[in-house]
């Protein structure tokens, strides 16, 4: 295979390839089975049946009690907005809400907006390994706390938050406080368990676990009051209007079933590949450092900082070799601020701008990891020669080799 | 993915003049590690002031490397005083353009070159700590913001973020930046005749009349036509044989300092 044709996709936390079997299941609903699920004839009924089946598949992914606890949305962001806004609109008497400093923008930006609308917000800190201080959470919850929004797994570092413990703490301090869990980066990687977690809402996004883009789902525990975000027809039991996106609903349902079945593969084969990649980079590249805890991570993600070189430049050179990854560098985005997650963890400036996230999937092969392990050290070596921090790099190299 | 030109792509892949010059005649730096990009430029000159070699080291993205590389190529062979005339727009143009969000890379190139030339001439380098820091995240001063607004004809907050990075992180300084933008744009606009008359009268009252009165004279504004300011001296100043010197060396100079360097005083 020539370098031009090579494509090694290690950015699965950004999006994933649609599984071909998922795609096959979806195709009839674009063409032959195109009926509106609300229509009173057989073509419509077939769509309604497909949605019902997908809802049951999603129920399995969430470990929900009832298919009625599953609502289809258009994205993880919509799930978060529908859940958080919906809960707060159902009870406007309480004005305190809690989240963490490392949430996805779909939660953080919404919270910033709510803050401007009069909500009193607590943003929980994380430590250098990305873990929450549960004592801080316990102290924060009070009688006025309407909602705690927290992620199950972080998109940049893969760090897993202990949702079950979080729920116990929150509910013991204030049983009326609702909990929204952003499980977008957990789906397909670790078990999502609405029963065990004992939370009120959970949001996921299809394209993070091999379903198409533009489809998400929201688990809402039976009895949870929420006001719809989108008003209109009676679809989704009046809680989310709009003609159902049947092919994508079929896709996310099927992908959910495969995600559940693939959890064992994620925790063994994918984790082994991730560990191989990570261990090799940390061993062979002297200016590499791990930006997370070694434990409590989803199996597919690693985030490595390369000191004194810049992230976008690393990505461009990796891209030239056909390797797709992602960076916490500001230069890769419209924003000029580097990753808020790595900043909250206190990752030093020396590595903050040169941090790269590698995220694997069930389709990642060992040959791809071997190739990445081969070319990455050469790229970093080339880029350290361009850096103006030659003295610092030499000192770092001396320290590292001295330790060896 | 940024819409980089072929030239930018070529230069981030194969940058020219990477490295340092051991016995450099001038070294200049811009940016910092904490801000996410930094450039160090080294120059070697001959006895006539011609730049014979230039090298760079960059901590930055693809466009920072490309901007640094093209800048070293642009200055080699130029007299240092001609190199000083290179603008950040010319750096960007030599690359076939940069995405708007990456224009700060060309500004960084220009700043590093300015610093190197100042180093050669043993001039004071513009030190960010010396000015009022507006953007604390990226340590950008009011002076930098004002000069980039003027040099690049910036019109919006977004433009300023793209060219200086100021306001692009926490965003707390954005209102302050907007104020500077409005004031700088306003100061660039030609004044109307009424505004000019009011401003001249203010300067006369504040800085000029009081000094002339000490010598038993005074001054009166008669009319204004564009940059021509018609005045009439009174009292002892009217008959003073050094009145023309007073008008040019004191009155005109004071008005030029406070209002516009183009002002011309005419006695009626």
How would you summarize what this structure contains?
The complex is a heterodimer of chains A (404) and B (268). Chain A is α/β, with parallel strands linked by helices. Chain A has helices spanning 20-26, 42-62, 76-90, 105-116, 134-140, 163-173, 194-197, 246-261, 263-284, 311-320, 340-344, 349-352, 366-386, 390-403, and strands at 8-9, 70-73, 96-100, 120-124, 145-151, 178-182, 201-205, 216-220, 288-290, 301-306, 323-324, 326-327, 355-359.
Overview features:
heterodimer; A: 404 residues; alpha/beta; seven-stranded mixed beta sheet; four-stranded antiparallel beta sheet; 13 strands; B: 268 residues; alpha+beta; elongated
Task: Give your account of this protein's structure.
The complex is a heterodimer of chains A (404) and B (268). The mean pLDDT of chain A is 94. Chain A has helices spanning 20-26, 42-62, 76-90, 105-116, 134-140, 163-173, 194-197, 246-261, 263-284, 311-320, 340-344, 349-352, 366-386, 390-403, and strands at 8-9, 70-73, 96-100, 120-124, 145-151, 178-182, 201-205, 216-220, 288-290, 301-306, 323-324, 326-327, 355-359. Chain A has 404 residues and is α/β, with parallel strands linked by helices. Chain A starts with 7 loop residues before the first strand and ends with a helix. In chain B, strand 2 and strand 3 (51-59) form a beta hairpin. In chain B, the strands form 3 sheets. Chain B has a 3-stranded antiparallel β-sheet. In chain B, strands 6-7-8 form a 3-stranded mixed β-sheet. Chain B has a two-stranded antiparallel sheet with strand order 4-5. Chain B is elongated, with a radius of gyration of 24 Å. Chain B is built from 11 helices and 8 strands. By secondary structure, chain B is of the alpha+beta class. The model of chain B has no long low-confidence stretch (mean pLDDT 89).
């Amino acid at each position: 295979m020539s370098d031009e044709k090579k494509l090694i996709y290690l950015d699965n936390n950004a999006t994933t390839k649609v599984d071909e079997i998922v795609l096959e299941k979806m195709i009839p609903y674009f063409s032959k089975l195109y009926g509106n699920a609300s229509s009173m004839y057989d073509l419509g009924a077939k769509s309604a049946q497909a949605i019902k089946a997908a809802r049951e598949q999603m129920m399995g992914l969430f470990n929900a009690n009832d298919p009625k606890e599953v609502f289809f949305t258009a994205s993880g962001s919509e799930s978060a907005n529908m859940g958080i806004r919906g809960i707060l609109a159902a009870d406007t008497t309480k004005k305190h809400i809690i989240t963490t400093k490392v949430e996805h923008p779909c939660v953080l930006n919404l919270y910033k907006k709510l803050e401007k609308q009069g909500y009193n917000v607590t943003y929980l800190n994380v430590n250098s390994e990305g873990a929450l201080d549960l004592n801080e959470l316990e102290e924060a919850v009070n009688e006025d706390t309407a909602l705690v929004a927290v992620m199950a797994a972080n998109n940049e570092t893969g760090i897993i938050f202990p949702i079950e413990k979080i729920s116990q703490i929150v509910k013991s301090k204030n049983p009326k406080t609702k909990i929204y869990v952003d499980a977008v980066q957990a789906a397909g990687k670790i078990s999502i368990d609405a029963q065990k977690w004992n939370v009120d809402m959970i949001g996921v996004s299809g394209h993070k676990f091999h379903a198409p883009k533009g489809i998400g789902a929201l688990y809402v525990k039976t009895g949870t009051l929420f006001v719809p975000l989108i008003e209109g027809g009676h679809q989704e039991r009046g809680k989310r209007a709009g003609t159902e996106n049947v092919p994508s609903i079929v896709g996310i349902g099927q992908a959910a079933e495969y995600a559940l079945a693939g959890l064992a593969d994620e925790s063994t084969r994918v984790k082994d590949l991730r560990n191989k990649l990570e261990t090799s980079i940390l061993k062979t590249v002297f200016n590499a450092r791990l930006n997370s805890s070694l434990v409590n991570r989803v199996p597919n993600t690693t985030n490595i900082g390369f000191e004194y070189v810049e992230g976008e430049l690393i990505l461009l050179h990796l891209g030239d070799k056909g390797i797709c990854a992602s960076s916490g560098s500001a230069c890769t985005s419209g924003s000029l601020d580097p990753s808020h997650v790595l900043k909250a963890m206190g990752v030093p400036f020396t590595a903050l701008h040169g941090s790269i996230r590698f995220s694997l999937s069930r389709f990642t092969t060992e040959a791809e990891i071997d190739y990445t392990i081969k070319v990455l050290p050469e790229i970093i070596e080339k880029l350290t020669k361009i850096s103006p921090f030659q003295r610092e790099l030499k000192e770092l190299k001396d320290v590292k080799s001295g330790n060896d | 993915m940024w819409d980089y030109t072929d030239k930018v792509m070529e230069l981030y892949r194969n940058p020219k003049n990477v490295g340092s010059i051991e016995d450099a005649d001038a070294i200049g730096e811009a940016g910092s590690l904490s801000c996410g990009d930094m450039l160090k430029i080294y120059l070697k000159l001959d006895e006539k002031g011609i730049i014979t070699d230039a090298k760079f080291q960059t901590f930055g993205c693809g466009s920072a490397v490309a901007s640094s590389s093209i800048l070293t190529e642009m200055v080699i062979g130029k007299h240092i005083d001609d190199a000083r005339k290179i603008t950040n727009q010319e750096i960007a143009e030599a690359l076939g353009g940069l995405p708007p969000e990456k224009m700060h890379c060309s500004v960084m190139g220009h700043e590093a070159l300015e610093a190197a030339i100042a180093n050669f001439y043993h001039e004071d380098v513009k030190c960010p700590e010396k000015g009022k820091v507006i953007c604390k995240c990226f340590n950008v001063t009011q002076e930098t913001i004002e000069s980039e607004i003027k040099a690049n004809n910036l019109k919006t907050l977004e433009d300023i973020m793209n060219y200086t990075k100021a306001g692009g992180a926490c965003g707390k300084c954005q209102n302050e930046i907007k104020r500077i933008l409005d004031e700088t744009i306003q100061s660039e606009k030609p004044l109307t005749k009424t505004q000019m008359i009011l401003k001249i009268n203010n300067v006369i009252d504040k800085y000029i009349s009081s000094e002339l009165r000490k010598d038993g004279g005074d001054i009166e504004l008669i009319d204004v036509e564009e940059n021509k300011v018609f005045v009439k001296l009174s009292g002892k100043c009217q008959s003073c044989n050094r009145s023309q010197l007073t008008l040019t060396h004191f009155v005109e100079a004071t008005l030029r300092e406070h209002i516009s360097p183009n002002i011309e005083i005419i006695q009626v």
